[in-house]
Amino acid sequence: MTAAGRPGSSPARGMEDVAQEVEGARRGDPTACRALYRRFRPSVLRLLEGFGGLDPDDREDIVQETFTRAFRGVANLKAAAAFEGWLYTIARNRALTTIERKGRQERVQSDLAFETEDASPMMPAAFHAEVDGVVVRELI
Prior knowledge:
single chain; mainly alpha
């Protein structure tokens, strides 16, 4: 395999292929989107494996979200040659957001585990006695 990742292709040809696929994705061509997904999914997944705190399900979710966001925003991409770096930036940002969210959830669960039930009664004892007296008078 060559640097472009395809047998018999040169790096320049690989960049031309990416540029054509990005242009196709801009037009909404599902074949171009699939080609970009197949081409870059493995490297996005490798990038995400470098983030501690992400389990395999998190990584798969982030891969899907990354490509969804990329294909929705590809029309705003100024240069097709910037697609790969832009895609990695989306994946990185999604990973950091997921790790931050998981950390917040763990802190909340930890805080809730140490909460004790409020020891003060909802109603003062005198009010309970009064209510009990009313109930007794009604029963008599």
